Amino acid sequence: xxxxxxxxxxxxxxxxxxxxxxxxQSAGHEIEFDFGTVGALQAKLDSGETADVLIxxxxxxxxxxxxxxxxxxxxxxxxxxxxxxxxxxxxxIPDFKTPEAFKRMLENARAIASSDPAVGGxxxxxxxxxxxxxGIAEAMKSKNLLQQNGVEVARxxxxxxxxxxxxxxxxxxxxPGAAIAGPVPxxxxxDTAYTGGVSAQSSAxxxxxxxxxxxxxxxxxEAWRKAGFEVG
Length: 232
What we know:
CATH superfamily of the largest domain: Periplasmic binding protein-like II
Largest sheet: 9 strands, mixed
Strand content: 25-35%
Number of strands: 9
Low-confidence stretches: none
Distance between the termini: 30 Å
CATH topology of the largest domain: D-Maltodextrin-Binding Protein, domain 2
């Protein structure tokens, strides 16, 4: 039996947690999960923390691979998510298919929710850039409810405190009562691909590799889809 520590981007916490627990039960291993924003996990790695399995954004995995942090040949593409417009389940879907319609939706909203850039995370950093590019950054300051993560973004929408939210699709799908209205239209969208790898320092490389293989098995496709991710 191996005891694995898995560092993973927070947007994947439900599906990776569920699939990981299933793998642990069938294989007889123990798994400790550390879910956080990419920025928070980067800080932990920079401070010297380690894990057997790392599931992070492609740029971060690229960086770790070049630094020799990953075991050679252990890298696996896992899933993709996108910046979504979150609405309350059953609510009318606003028109935001074009850049012009998307801008109007933002300007007409009573309040929206998005993640606080200070916390880190790809969506949190990207949304303020979108506001700047649209020329509405100043107007959005008074109506944008900043949250600690994407799950809290979706919860504010479900509670009716925000008309809609902007966060990663995987975060929306994890919150009961929240629904994905669709992706933010180009050129303002954000697709994020996540990749996994086994740490070169891991003392349980075979078990770690088996865990990654289980996550990316063809039989998991429906679980990923329900969680708001694309695979393959």
